[in-house]
Amino acid sequence: DKLISAYDQMLAKTPEDSKLLYLRGRLCSTKSQSTTYFNRAMTSDPNNPYPQFALAYGLISAGQFDEARKLAASACKLAPDHSQMREQLLEIRLILKEYDSLARELRAKLVAEPLNMTNHTNLLRILIAAGKTDEAKQANKQYIKRISDAGHGTAAFTGQMKRTLAYFLGDSSRLPDLS
Fold first, then answer.
1. What are the residues whose beta carbons fall under 8 Å from the beta carbon of 66, sequence distance 6 or more?
2. Distance (Å, rounded) from C-alpha 61 to C-alpha 44?
3. Which residues contact 147 (CB under 8 A, 6 or more apart)?
4. What angle do the packed helices 83-95 and 65-78 form, to 10 degrees?
5. What's the pLDDT score for residue 175?
6. Tens of pLDDT along 18-71?
């Protein structure tokens, strides 16, 4: 209650402060209250990615993925280095089955950063979700080879990547044997 009161006092002095409005929205106990603050924050400063991120989260919870995608994409454009925002957009796009475009984007990122494990594991997830298990297996072999060629390939790493793929494929019975 003290924290809410402190934010309310600050907002009384600067009622259009987007950052304060967003943070005040985070303290609300109901979705409708927080949505009001997040919308006000977004209107006050359309370049603040946080209210868009928060509103997208609420829309995801309500199953409104198309609307959530718009807000999440906008938030990512404003804060491209924010990993949680990027992950939120990726998950929404997976739900919307944007497999081909996601795979293309991740392959392009892997050309620029061929050893990036996050991009690689996301590519595996997308290929498997799209039913392209053979492509996922081939991509994993290629990734392990790139790591090895770069001098970073160890037996433990190779086993980890094989287990990651088996896990994504739902083949948990093989997890202990893969090394």
1. 96
2. 24
3. 115, 153, 157, 161
4. 150
5. 66
6. 999 999 999 999 999 999 999 999 999 999 999 999 999 999 999 999 999 999
SS (H, E, C) the chain: CHHHHHHHHHHHHCCCCHHHHHHHHHCCCCHHHHHHHHHHHHHHCCCCHHHHHHHHHHHHHCCCHHHHHHHHHHHHHHCCCCHHHHHHHHHHHHHCCCHHHHHHHHHHHHHHCCCCHHHHHHHHHHHHHCCCHHHHHHHHHHHHHHHHHCCCCCHHHHHHHHHHHHHHCCCHHHHHHCC
Do 27 and 7 meet the contact criterion of CB atoms below 8 Å apart? yes
> CA–CA separation, 66 vs 30, rounded Å?
23
Q: What is the mean pLDDT of residues 112-134?
A: 96
Residue for token digits 């949505």?
35
Residue 74 contacts residue 67 (beta carbons within 8 Å): no
The two tokens of residue 102 are 């996601």
